[in-house]
């Protein structure tokens, strides 16, 4: 009897006090609110990033007229930004070692906002080129940090949906940026060309989002329980402490992370397909100019490209969900099959869009349906396969670095696509920028540009689908190696 009473007193002593339970519940509630607010602001940053990317291509025609630039010159602007972005992307991995990601994101956002405003104020073509390079530097810092933030905020089974949501809202931002710029481009505001006002407006909004990210976003590695992996949080905190010890420690840890990432075979294969697979997407920056050369006005062009962007937004989210489901049924190959299907679909859609449909304003509805269905099916790769698979083949502390080097390789090589489209259009298919009617367009130049686009889309889409094949054997082995290493580290802790 006495033993039972003592046991009851002992159990009561262990039982959480009501006040402690209330405090614990309040802490959990604050954590949930903090995570939700952080993800909301991260998605807003993604919206502004994609809007900024779509800004210049949406006003190519006006920039061409303002600076007397042809397709190859405009292609070089995209090349400069993408090339600098690719070269500077590893810097994101270095910065994240020594600073939390909200700070890194805010720095990158303010950098691209400054350069966007400067492009709107530029009076010479070389000034535009310089500021596009600065823009690429800002994006190089932001994009890998965004991707690793999402990877740390979701578990393996739903990570495709997480990347899909990021891509979905980002694409909506791209739609907004493209539509606003295209509509404003044909007007004057306070005596200033509309396309310049669009750049200044976008820069102002980007600065505001960057400031909010710096103030309110909480890094997942500071919140135990967000990714349900205390061991990974310990590793990241330990890495930050080492980075804060001094510059030599930062560079040493960066070098170790770089070696660990580059030697992963899954990373090598995905980067290889990405280098080729990014070429069509880079070439698509000429879609706005192509439709306007056909004879569509600014509003019609904006509507067509919005349908394509909506299809891409829905497709990226749908692809992430489908791949999550497929990965449960086929754990070692489901994501790869989704990626190959999506890349392959780019071949028939590109052929039909650029070669089969008559290039006339009377084909508006055929263009609209084709663009929507094309976007719905060719936009799966990043959310269904690349992003989630990268997160599974390296330790959590190396995630920013693997996304950074992916952008470095893909961005550097794919940046050649835009000038190649211009060169092919001018040198092989007879594009002549002096023959363009600024009001009614030019069917002859539209045809030449479409042939340059076709060459840079059909073949790369086919090679991209083919290059995923080795992952059926390699991905499982790399993922198992990381899981085994994580188990050993947790046992040591």
TrEMBL record:
The chain crosses the membrane at residues 74-97, 104-123, 129-151, 163-186, 198-218, 269-291, 303-323, 335-353, 365-387, 408-429, 449-469. It is a multi-pass membrane protein. Its main location: membrane. It comes from the Eukaryota. Residues 38-473 form the Major facilitator superfamily (MFS) profile domain. Pfam families: MFS_1. PROSITE patterns: MFS. InterPro entries: MFS, MFS_dom, MFS_spinster-like, MFS_trans_sf. Belongs to the major facilitator superfamily. Spinster (TC 2.A.1.49) family. It comes from Herrania umbratica. GO terms for molecular function: transmembrane transporter activity. This is Uncharacterized protein LOC110409636. GO terms for cellular component: membrane. Keywords: Membrane, Transmembrane, Transmembrane helix, Transport. The gene is LOC110409636. It is found in: Membrane.
